[in-house]
Structures are given as C-alpha cells and as structure tokens.
Amino acid sequence: MVATSPLSLAINGRERLLVQDLVAFTRPVGSERLGTVAVVGLGYVGLPTALAIEHSAERVVGLDVDPARLAAIAARDCDLDDEARRTLALVLEAGRLDLTTDAAALHAADVVVVCVPTPVLADRSPDLRALRSACETVVAHARRGQTIILTSTTYVGTTRELLAGPLHARGLLPGSDVFVAFSPERIDPGNHDHRQRETPRVVGGITPECAAAAANVVSALTDSVFLVSSPEAAELTKLYENIFRAVSLALANEFADACGTFGIDPIEVTLAAGTKPYGFLGAFPGPGVGGHCIPCDPHYLLAQLRSSGVAAPVVDATMHAIEDRPLRVADRAGEVLAADGIDLAGARVVVAGVSYKAGVRDVRESPALPLIAALLDRGAEVGYHDPLMPVIRLDDGRELASVPDPAAGDWDLAIVQVVHPGVDHDWVRRCPRVLDATYRFDAPGTDRQVV
Questions:
Q1: Is 293 a catalytic residue?
Q2: What domains can you pick out in the chain, each with its CATH number?
Q3: Which of 135, 151, 223, 340 would be a feasible disulfide site paired with 185, CB 3.0-4.6 Å?
Q4: Annotated catalytic residue within 115, 135, 293, 296
Q5: What single string gives the DSSP state of each residue in 296-363?
Q6: pLDDT in tens, 277-335
Q7: Per residue in 1-30, pLDDT tens?
C-alpha cells in the first residue's frame, strides 16, 4: 500500500529518481486496535513510545527494571516536553498505562516493543548487557501470536541473533507463530521540529509477514512507514544515519577551527553554504557531541568490522575527533586566559550548561564532563551552573554541584557549553571573559572568544 504523506529524500538531489525504490506501507483503514502493547524499557525512547501508542491500544504496559524510574514516571517527574508531560498525566489519571517491574506481564501482551539503551563501555566497546537481558526476558515470556519489535540501535544481526533464533529454539517460528522485526527509533529529544508522528520510520522483518505485522504497529506511531528487505538492512540503516551525523559534526568542528585561522565566522559560512538546495547538508560546530546516539552507535559498527578484519578509516577518525573535541575546548580556555597573562592552573572557570543538548535533562556522553575533568586536571578551580542538572558525576567518580548563584562568583572565565531555553544567562555576559563553545551565544560588551 502507498503512504499518503510526502517523503523528501536528501540524496545528492536525486530524490525524485529514488523515492520509487522504497516500499511504503499504510495501515489499512478500519484496522483493529492493537490489543495489549508492552513497552520494555521506559527511557527517552520507551516512555514517548508508550504515550504515543496508547491511543491505538486497548492497554499499555510499561516494563522497566528500575523501580526508581517507574516511581519518577508515576510522579510525573521525568524528562518530557510540556505536551508529552500533559499526555502522561492524562494517561496515568485514566489508568491507561500500567507500570511494572514484573516481566511476567509480557506474556499477556499482543505486541512487545523493546526500547532499552545500547551504550558503550569505557573502552568504547558495545555494552550489550541491557540489550541481551531484555531480549532474553522477551523470549522467555513470548507466546504465539505476538508481534515483537526491537527499536534499540545495535549491531547488524541483533534481531535475528537475540530474538528470532532463540524464539525458534523455543518452538515459536517467526512469520507464523510470532512476528519479529527491527524498526529503529527516530526520537529527537528536545526538538519540537521532529515530532514522532511526523517522522518516517523504517521496518525490516524476519519474513514479509513479520514486516507487515510490525509495520501495522509502527504506523500507529507515525504517518510514514517504509519497508526494507530484512532486519539487517534496517539495523544498518540506523547505524548509517547516526554515523553520517557523526561525520558531519566532526567536519563542522574541524571547519570551525579552519574558519578561526582566517578570522571568519563559521556560523555565517555554514548558513551561506546551506542556501544551496542540493549536495550540502550542514551542521553547526560546538563543544563536542553528546547523548545516547552519536558518541556511541558508530562503535557498534566499528566493533563488528574490526572483528571481521575490515577497516573503516573515515568512521574511525571521526570518532577520535569527536572524543578529542572537549580537550580542544580546554586547550582554548588556556589560550584565552594566557592572552591576559592568567595561568589556567589556579584560574576560576565556570561552565554554563552541562547537559549534552539544549533543553534536555541528560548528561549521557555530554562533552561537558570530559571538559570539566580536563580543566580540573590542569589545575583550574571549576564550577558549573545548570538548573536542569543539579549534580553531576565525572567518569572518575568526582562529583560537582551546580553553583546556585553564578553571578556572585569571581570568575576568570565563563565557558558556554550549552544554552538552555528559558534559563537566565545574563550572569555570563557579566564575566570578564567568555569562551563561547556554541559559537552562537550573544555576549555584547564582553571579551567573547570562540573555540
């Protein structure tokens, strides 16, 4: 069936030649409600998924291994935008979302959606503990007739290895007894321009029957669903998306350094290049790359390729550049202070914003953490101010608390790491020196430098 919503492909300006090669799916008119939907993992993907699918389900069960997370959701104390927060309140008040740590609840579900995190370890190797545990739990409680969809970004072959194979070993044949597919999440926290309903999704099933069953579920979340030939194709699609973004961001940061050599504003150059309607997809430079996707997901592909003896020099260099970026900011902080005869060792430095992204209460892989660690290691006295993150813990266990009144501090340098909407940043403008790692902070009347 053909999707009714338009699709714009950004592939070297040849989208009109390529769109016909995609297989579109539209949920049939008059489709029955989805029955009981169980969402495994209620983090930044799982909770919005549960809220978005609730209107198409008879019942939604949210399963999470962390009782504290469930308690926070029940108390409406979770990182959601205002609209999603209102939806959560309505759904909880109406009793339409059951929160549980009991995996036995999965057996009664008609649909199971797996939304667990897939981070990396300290050595940047994939951390598969949550993923493997979730899949083992789903398989153990699976029954005939279920549709099981994995959404977590992961290595190629995961769906077949951790779900389809073990289910088959239990006597549940994918495509007839159960329906198994991969549909990578596409949720952009804090960005209201990319809403779930308006963002196309890709589905790859173990069999065509699996793909159709899963697409019927995913079409309750978005108006555009496109089918690919296999779960492996869908898994690699997600990795390609995030690797492309990683390369773009690493290039943007490198180009910003080049712009600095010539005394040219990299934001101006990026916006000017962006006027070209084909062949250019720009990104803005910044202090580094954080979050649950870009700093982590490419390592899932790199690990697989290395085990196969295959090199990926562009991706490998990109991830090194991303990891080194906060250290470049620390170097630049020392340069700005040295220009006024101040040694970084002993200097008082405050970091404005430590979340990995504006408007998001999340420091996973935030470049602020290695930046602060580097400044401390170089002898600076470091504070930070971020109303969204009252306390942070560095990788080595050191803890810092947000400075409640940064305007009262006698700072030598303020580093703008992220600018949260609705947060007062006037105190930054009163600092004698400002290092703007975002390249877009307005600081008239101050000694504003960029990375």
A1: yes
A2: 15-229 (3.40.50.720), 241-314 (1.10.1040), 324-450 (3.40.50.720)
A3: 151
A4: 293
A5: THHHHHHHHHHHTT---HHHHHHHHHHHHHHHHHHHHHHHHHHTTT--STT-EEEEE--SSSTT----
A6: 888 888 999 999 999 899 999 999 999 999 999 999 999 999 999 999 999 999 999 99
A7: 334 444 555 555 555 555 666 788 877 776
